[in-house]
Sequence to fold (321 residues):
Amino acid sequence: MILALETSCDETAAALVTEYGEVRANVVASQADLHARYGGVVPEVASRRHLELLLPVLREVQAEANATLDDVDRVAVTTGPGLIGALLVGLSAAKALAWARRLPLVPVDHLHGHVASLYLQPHAVEPPFLCLLASGGHSLLLDVRDHAGYGRVGTTLDDAAGEAFDKGARLLGLGYPGGAELDRLARDGDPEAYPFPVARVPGFDFSFSGLKTALLYAVRDLSADELERRRADLAASYQRAIVRALVERTEAAAEHLGADRIAVVGGVAANSELRAALPDAAKAPLALCTDNAAMIASAARYTEPVPYPGYLAVDAYASAG
Ligand code: KG4
Ligand code: ZN
Fold:
């Protein structure tokens, strides 16, 4: 079995996954509540919390799988991109676990992990496909030819899609992170009520900053009473604009590359309107959209392990570069 750890942002996660991609246990301890009062993730607070949560999460994942470290053949861990201090907590723990048992270590790229959430059983999706990765930290279009990696087709010029959801949610007085709440609120609103703009930038990139400003102005022009009455309409119209931007670009890129298949992964892939707007696309299971370690174990199945004892110098990296 592969033991995987993921600590790149504000979820402390561990998973036990077999070589065939069967998830034996997948434990995620979210720190979202801790960061909510700051309206975003505070890196130093996240690092410290990872340190506290890691051992309980490790114990829980073994209990859930009815397994012990004796059943582990390799240790996989996210090495980046993400918050550097947060990543180092997971990486140090993974090195210690692997070293103590003379096991190989598999350094995993977080974005490869999101793509590999599609390779897990029982509904594994096979490459090639064009992948929309939309999360709190990234909005990427990826050309996925095989299990081992991906090529970049497009990215965001400013905010990530999840960030746009979270900032919009904040303007509408919802909690943090607000994507899922905005999704729920939008169901009671009219998506045509406000004609929010869909940015047209060259190539296959995204831009969400103009949309965020449009929502800011719309909210600012309303009295408190009016805002309360129009909140669902604002949420629905704002969500419609984000989803349209994502879907239009993804379909254009798929056509350009001649991709027969589209896949959607990352936290925003949990959005109900996005899922409905791409009925034929392969979608990560809801539980595997937001950050988790099962997807990291999945990517590790297709990543070269570093044999014992050569991995003590393996480092974490903050940005994809
Ligand atoms: O993949 P993820 O856990 O973290 C990163 O790797 O960044 O994604 C988290 C993001 C947050 O911005 C959250 O608001 C968004 O995914 N999200 C959603 C929904 N559920 C989570 N956005 C829109 N609709 C949802 N249902
Ligand atoms: Zn992520």
